[in-house]
Amino acid sequence: MAKYNLIVYSLIAIVIVLIIANVYLLNSNLSITSQKESLATKQEMSNLLTQVKTALDSELEQVDLDIQSACQQLSTVNFGSSQVRAILSALVDNNSFIKSASLEVDGILVAVEPEERSYIEGSDVTNQEQTIRLRQTLRPVMSNQIKLVENIYGVVMAAPIFNNDKTFVGAVTIVIEPNQLINQTITSIYNGADYTFMGIQVDGLVLYDVDQAQIGTETLSNPVFQGFPDLLATCQRMATEKAGYSTYEFKPSLASSDVISKELFWVTIEIYGTEWRLAIIHVLS
Known about the structure:
By secondary structure, the chain is α+β, with helices and mostly antiparallel strands. The chain has helices at residues 2-74, 83-93, 129-137, 178-187, 229-240, and strands at 98-105, 108-113, 141-142, 146-147, 153-162, 168-176, 195-201, 206-209, 244-250, 260-271, 274-283. Strands 1, 2, 3, 4, 5 and 6 form a six-stranded antiparallel beta sheet that branches. A five-stranded antiparallel beta sheet has the order 8-7-11-10-9, sandwiched between helices.
């Protein structure tokens, strides 16, 4: 009888060991599967971000070529001629996200296209940041998002015009809306729901987000963000690091009371010495 009990207990012990081993193997397999899925997600995020960055860089490079072409054309015409408006109109027509194009002389907008923006002709932009920088460097510049003379917010790109004697005589300026530019670039590449994108200036001002309420907010100083130290630390890193990866907690939207965990990769969009950070975001389960 004792021998029989010993055999039974031994079998029970073996079964328990096998169950524990199977549970361990199952958990290990689940962990490996989860790690593989996480790596696949990160790779997909990185690939998508690269595609959008490449497309945005291409859009801005084309705008640069168009502005330089306009400057070259204007360098040989009388600023009072009808050719000026034709050149500015072509600049607007060739780029769907350009809201207006202007000829600026001595800090004054002397011609503006399209016609519905012509009411700002005669406006003094001497103290706007892009005007100051352009006169200091005599090189193309792009402003941060600023309040324009039209009483709206936008980004101004400006390039100098030189006459045949290489004398600086004025500038071509264009107004773009980063929100529209970034959005149309993203939607031409990605229409899924797994990831979202954000565009942000290095000073923390949000240029683009799927949550429209966040556009124009200043992440580093807005009280809404102060209760989320990981988010603030991420934004501070984005201000100084051209590319990176981070995780943080924040609301799904400003109107939400929930808090979720997110991960993001970011890269830099740069033209004329001004930088934006472009990020792709994924909600962690």
